[in-house]
Specification:
The complex is a heterotrimer.
Chain A: E1 13-18, E2 22-23, E3 26-27, E4 44-51, H1 58-75, E5 101-108, H2 113-125, E6 131-134, H3 138-151, E7 154-157, E8 174-176, H4 181-196, E9 201-207, H5 210-225, E10 229-236, H6 244-247, E11 257-261, H7 264-276, E12 283-284, E13 287-288, E14 290-295, H8 298-304, E15 312-315, H9 324-337, H10 343-362, H11 367-374, E16 377-379, E17 387-389, E18 396-397, E19 400-405, E20 416-422, H12 424-427
Parallel strand pairs in A: 4-5, 4-6, 6-7, 7-8, 9-10, 9-11, 11-14, 14-15
Antiparallel strand pairs in A: 1-2, 1-3, 12-13, 15-19, 16-17, 17-18, 19-20
Helix pairs in contact in A: 1-10, 2-3, 4-5, 7-8, 10-11
Chain B: H1 2-32, H2 39-57, E1 60-69, E2 75-81, H3 82-97, H4 99-121, H5 131-153, E3 169-171, H6 172-176, E4 184-186, H7 187-209, H8 211-221, H9 223-228, H10 233-255, H11 265-280, H12 285-302, H13 305-310, H14 314-329
Antiparallel strand pairs in B: 1-2, 3-4
Chain C: H1 6-20, H2 22-25, H3 43-66, H4 73-90, H5 95-117, H6 122-141, H7 145-148, E1 154-155, E2 174-175, E3 178-179, E4 183-188, E5 191-196, H8 197-218, H9 220-230, H10 232-237, H11 242-267, E6 270-271, H12 278-291, H13 298-313, H14 318-324, H15 330-341, H16 348-362, H17 367-381
Helix pairs in contact in C: 1-8, 3-8, 3-9, 3-11, 3-12, 3-13, 4-5, 4-6, 4-11, 5-6, 5-11, 8-11, 9-11, 12-13, 13-16
The chains are: A alpha/beta, B mainly alpha, C mainly alpha.
Chain lengths: 447, 343, 392
């Protein structure tokens, strides 16, 4: 009779009562078959998909879940295989992971650190998940990443854009495919320079929490480097729903560009308010007044409606890309669900495939082995061109898309158009860059 | 000076939303003695009346256009709203464009009906229960309402624009002799302010000058005596609940173009509207309106950089700080009545 | 025994037994069966029930006895967590200093807030507490980030000083070296039961907290608090000033909340600002009313019901539903699955809202009343059952 044992850091104790009721405590030595947390023993392996299902990001969460289900289907050999066909590493066989059928459990993060950790814990403790993935905000990602590090499972981050996730809060067991605030800034700045010139005065409205701050810092640094002046940086409370009192003074300040460091509902409302105030029809300092939204997503663009037209921003991926990987993904997602995937769906699909592939190459689900296989891994064919999973901070380096709200959408999904694909080299930074300093990966933890 | 005028305008606009919600809440508090945690949800349902009407007006006939393709490369399905088919492109587009003001006509009967059903079906049984029980049942109802809206409309905000005629903003600075672009204010927000002034005025006039209002006011003061006079106060209270729901609902409809509606907008306003009502004083309608505008204006001023530089984070807490100070200085809020909800 | 009469002693013993056997009681279904989804016997959930049980028990001392409805107790929970994590970071990862500090800090903080808020009564008191808690939450999320680490939450780092810990000491919260995350698994006839050090630590503290609550309820002080609820004026006329009694109740309940916050940090060393939000303060109100305000066991039952629903129902996704109903014909299966999907998975909050409405409408005394009704039914069938009522 096999006992799945759950204990960490060397104190592996298993009590077993064999039928008659005789207690046989035994101590398993490290290095035996099940020397890591939740090692799969049977013919299946369980992954934990931890996404927001209630709260403001529930739609992103729902789209992530769709992508996860699609990825599981493809891993198990169902469907058309999606990006498995275009992925440069061909280790995946379509027979699950290491021959084990992939099963999954889902949970609700509620976009709250506490709830997200509770949900992840139940996946680890109750369902025996060997990997946790998902999330749609940086606070949650960092909280769950910390938990996975302590528990000894791999965390494949979902949508998280804060520099801190792979900066000062990076963890050996955590990996991020999504881009970050620094990359947004590095990709956007040259385009903004080209479109709006070197002599601009920027006014920042920033969501008053860590993600907002890191993005504001990144954008301000990049735009100042090309000659822009930062007139003002104003912090707005996270709970704000009406931004009128922050937007009204903008015109008066002498600024001619408004940068909205907001995401989700905050961004939808602040952009709507800014357009309501007619900012974009104004001429300041002899130039057209412009608005920039550094982090865009199609679902947010949908919420803001026609207010997004002509507004620049950056995004991790967009369904209108025409490389083979993106096309394959859009085709299998679109055929199954009837609409194109969001960037959140794309990043979690990639993360699931990358994890599975790393397991195959490592020949094990052991977090340390998987981590080693992911570190420094170079791949292509997942929709972002040539990509590197950097060993120093577990961040993916790949092309970043600069997009613009489309003036004349052809259909309801056609909200953003790609202005430029910024090559990975241009958004790469040193691992010890000051905006990312202050953390350390530590050693990998296998439970 | 210009900044102060600007923030005053902002404050009046924010305040009109607060005052409208608080007004409806106070009607229920004051007349029925019920703590209604579902009031924010009524506001949200009002906004979704506008969303729904916009969707209904956009119900379309479908035709396939083989010259274009959709995202999967299949022939594009071109949709034309039936309204456009029936009324011609210009009138049809105009009707769709004016969906938010039109939604007011739909929202009033719907919200009154929702209010009646809520009162007769649920709230009625809770008049003599402790306030805590009322909170629990109405909070449960609020969750159910917002979850149903979420299942139907998704979690993301749904853009619901104002008619094109009201887009853009008006330059007050020119009028007052300032430089252009210094004091600008969106047309729709001005309409919202005027609209709320009219609704508040109408509710006051209704309570002041009609027999119905007189009885309700008498019932607020002394329910038992009014009942002994042989007047069916219960029926009138049901109607008051319907009116309060309608006020919350049309406040939501008109708010839809200001911020795209989403399913949790009611919860966002819930705590705030309670603070407004209590700061105004329990059982006082003028108090609720006054507190709404006061807190709106204070919130606007607190978000000014000049103020934030002196008190960091003041805009995060100004409403709560004001509430605490007022309640400590004036035990029953601005205009509260003795003995209402004090035990 | 322990200053309790016979009935209360047997009540306490029943509670102790129930708590100690939680790993069995919450794990009624065998592994691999379709019902295993409803098993809640894993350490995190069991500990959460115990911790929120403590939180609600304390809240009940204020609300259940005096009738003062505070919406601000989340602030004390949050302060307790922050104190505990700071203690972990600065002093030692042993849990006792952390818990003691969190109780003290929450006590002081509740003294301050209680002193101000209790100058008013009724809804005015509720809004004062709500306003102070919401202010704490918003400041913790933004301006106080150096102290609270804002959005991300305060967490342990390898570089923390931890001046009392030896270099080779455990890097996780521990009881004099025994890590709280250590678990023992017992497998019997396809059932897997988990015994977790952290859960039993929380459980023992919860039992102590329950015992203290029992004593407070039965004490002259408890009588005074009930007098405040039934008629403050009459109490004042007899020459008694109710303020010191209500303030004492407020501080005691604040300390319970701080203890719960400290335990949350002990089980999972991360303190986030969201713990101070009004929704958490509202949650404990709901737990108390749902279970039965003013009863001894009610708040704990309410806490258990809400935490169980939140954690278990939110995990029942459509794939799980399909596996349950796969025996049905295809068309019917889809209908049934989409019906249940309305209430589980992403719709779990709908079930929660419906439960609030149903319980408060049909069981005015909360879940405890439901238990009593069932008990009475059983008793009517067997009239010779002794007349003791464990649900108080």
């Amino acid at each position: 009779m096999s006992t799945s044992n759950f204990t960490r850091r060397g104190m592996l104790k298993t009590g077993a009562i064999a039928g008659a009721g005789l207690a046989l405590p035994q101590i398993l030595s490290a290095g035996s078959h099940s020397s890591y947390m939740n090692a799969p023993t049977g013919s299946t392996v369980t992954l934990g998909f931890n996404v927001p299902q209630t709260g403001p990001y529930a739609d992103e969460g729902a789209d992530e879940l769709r992508a996860y289900e699609l990825a599981v289907e493809h891993l198990n050999g169902g469907g058309d295989g999606g990006m498995m066909g275009t992925f440069s590493s061909q280790a995946l066989q379509g027979n699950g992971i290491l021959g084990r059928k992939v099963e999954f459990v889902t949970g609700d993060t509620q976009t709250k650190s506490d709830a997200a950790r509770a949900s992840a814990k139940s996946m680890i403790e109750k369902d025996g998940a060997v990997m946790i993935t998902g999330g749609s905000s940086s606070g949650v990602a960092i909280a769950v990443q910390g938990l996975c590090q302590e528990a000894g499972v791999i965390f494949m981050a979902g949508l998280t854009h804060s520099n801190d996730t792979t900066g000062k809060d990076k963890k050996a067991n955590g990996f991020r495919h999504f881009f970050n605030g620094y990359m947004s800034a590095a990709a956007l700045a040259p385009v903004l320079e080209k479109m709006y010139g070197k002599d601009r005065k920027a006014y920042h409205l920033t969501a008053d929490y860590t993600w907002g701050w890191t993005q504001e810092e990144s954008i301000a640094a990049a735009t100042e480097a090309m000659g822009w002046e930062t007139v003002n940086k104003v912090r707005t409370p996270l709970a704000s729903t009406d931004f009128s009192s922050y937007i009204a003074p903008v015109l008066n300040s002498g600024a001619d560009v408004l940068v909205l460091n907001h995401y989700g509902g905050n961004m939808v409302n602040s952009l709507t308010n800014a357009v309501q105030f007619g900012l974009r029809d104004k001429i300041v300092n002899g130039k057209n007044f412009e608005i920039v939204v550094p982090l865009y997503s199609r679902l947010m663009a949908k919420g803001a409606g026609e207010n997004v037209k002509g507004i620049f921003g950056s995004t991790n991926w967009h369904w209108s890309l025409t490389d083979a990987g993106s096309k394959a993904f859009v085709k299998s997602f679109g055929t199954k669900y009837g609409f194109p995937p969001s960037q959140a769906a794309h990043t979690v699909y990639c993360q699931t495939l990358l994890y599975a592939d790393a397991c195959e190459r490592a020949g094990s689900h052991n977090p340390c082995a998987v981590g080693e296989a992911l570190e420094g891994f170079e791949f292509d064919g997942l929709g972002n061109g040539k990509t590197l999973y950097r060993a120093e901070d577990h961040q993916c380096f790949k092309d970043v898309l600069v997009v613009k709200g489309k003036e004349n959408p052809e259909n309801e999904f056609d909200l953003l158009e790609i202005v430029e694909v910024t090559p990975a080299a241009q958004v790469t930074y040193a691992p010890d860059h000051p905006m990312f300093a202050g953390g350390e990966l530590g050693a990998c933890n296998a439970g | 000076m210009d900044v102060i005028i600007l923030q005053l305008l902002n404050g009046l606009d924010k305040g009109s939303a607060y005052a409208l919600i608080a007004l409806g809440l106070t009607l229920i508090f004051g007349t029925l003695g019920v703590v209604n945690f579902a009031h924010g949800a009524l506001f949200m349902i009002g906004a979704f009346c506008a969303v729904t009407l916009q969707k209904v007006l956009n119900i379309s006939s479908e035709a396939i256009d083989p010259t274009k393709t959709d995202f999967l490369g299949n022939p594009l399905v071109v949709k034309t709203p039936y309204v456009v088919n029936w009324f011609g492109p210009e009138t049809g587009a105009l009707i769709i464009d004016w969906s938010v003001p039109l939604a007011l006509l739909v929202a009033v009967p719907i919200m009154i009906l929702v209010g009646f059903i809520m009162e007769r079906g649920l709230i009625k049984h809770f008049y003599h229960r402790p306030h805590a029980d009322q909170i629990l049942v109405t909070f449960g109802l609020a969750i159910v309402m917002q979850e149903l809206i979420k299942q139907g409309f998704g979690a993301n905000a749904i853009p619901t624009g104002a008619p094109d005629a009201f887009k853009g903003s008006y330059d007050f600075g020119n009028l007052l002799g300032f430089d252009p672009n210094v004091i600008i204010y969106p047309y729709w927000r001005m309409i919202y302010f005027a609209f709320s002034a009219i609704v508040i005025g109408a509710v006051f006039a209704f309570l002041r000058f009609t027999t119905f209002g007189m009885v309700v006011r008498a019932g607020m003061a002394d329910r038992e005596t009014v009942g002994l006079l042989g007047i069916n106060i219960d029926k009138r209270f049901t109607i008051m609940f319907g009116i309060a729901a309608a006020v919350a609902g049309i406040a939501g409809v008109m708010y839809a173009p200001i911020n795209s509606p989403n399913y949790h907008m009611g919860m966002d306003f819930l705590v705030l509207s309670f603070v407004v009502v209590v700061v105004g004083g329990m059982g006082s309608l003028p108090g609720a309106v006054l507190a709404g505008f006061m807190l709106g204006i204070l919130e606007s001023f607190a978000s000014m950089n000049e103020v934030k530089n002196i008190f960091p984070g003041i805009d995060q807490i100004i409403i709560y700080l004001t509430a605490i100070i007022i309640l400590l200085v004036r035990p029953r809020g601005l205009m509260g009545k003795r003995g209402v909800m004090e035990d | 025994m322990l200053g309790l009469n016979k009935r209360d002693t047997s009540f306490l013993i029943i509670v102790i037994l129930l708590t100690m056997f939680t790993p069995f009681l919450m794990q009624p279904f065998s592994e691999g069966s379709a019902m295993a989804q409803f098993n809640g016997g894993y350490p995190d959930l069991m500990a959460k029930v115990a911790i929120f049980g403590i939180f609600a028990m304390g809240f009940n001392i204020l609300f259940g006895l005096t009738g003062y409805l505070s919406f601000g107790h989340a602030a004390f929970l949050g302060v307790g967590s922050y104190s505990a994590v700071w203690m972990f970071k600065l002093l030692t990862l042993n849990v006792f200093p952390a818990i003691i500090l969190s109780v003290i800090v929450a006590g002081l903080f509740s003294l301050l807030i209680g002193y101000i808020s209790l100058r008013r009564s009724g809804i005015y008191f509720s809004i004062l507490t709500l306003a102070m808690a919401e202010m704490s939450y918003r400041l913790a999320y933004s301006v106080f980030t150096p102290l609270t680490n804002g959005e991300t939450g305060l967490q342990l780092r390898p570089g923390d000083p931890r001046i009392l810990d030896a270099a080779d000491a455990s890097r996780y919260p521990n009881l004099f070296g025994l890590e709280l995350s250590t678990s023992y698994k017992l497998e019997v006839l396809n059932h897997v039961f988990t015994f977790n050090v952290g859960f039993y630590f929380c459980a023992v503290i919860a039992i102590i907290a329950f015992y203290l609550t029992l004593r407070i309820f039965r004490s002259p002080f408890g009588m005074m608090l009930r007098a405040v609820k039934s008629n403050q004026n009459r109490m004042s006329f007899t020459g008694l000033n109710p303020r010191p009694y209500t303030l004492a109740a407020f501080v005691i309940s604040g300390m319970y909340a701080g203890l719960a916050g400290g335990l949350l940090a002990v089980m999972d060393p991360l303190a986030g600002a969201e713990r101070m939000q009004w929704t958490v303060g509202g949650e404990v109100v709901i737990m108390t009313i749902l279970g039965g305000a003013g009863t001894l066991l009610g708040p704990v039952l309410g806490a258990g019901a809400i935490k169980y629903l939140e954690n278990i129902f939110s995990k029942i996704n459509e794939t799980v539903l399909h596996s349950w109903f796969s025996f049905m014909p295809d068309g019917m299966e889809d209908v049934v699955v989409s019906f249940f999907a309305f209430f589980t998975g992403k719709g779990w909050a709908l079930t929660l809202g419906l439960m609030f409405m149903l319980v408060v409408t049909f069981l005015p005394g909360g879940l405890v009343e439901g238990g009593q009704r069932i008990w009475n039914k059983i008793r009517r069938k067997k009239p010779d059952t002794p007349n003791n009522n464990p649900a108080e």
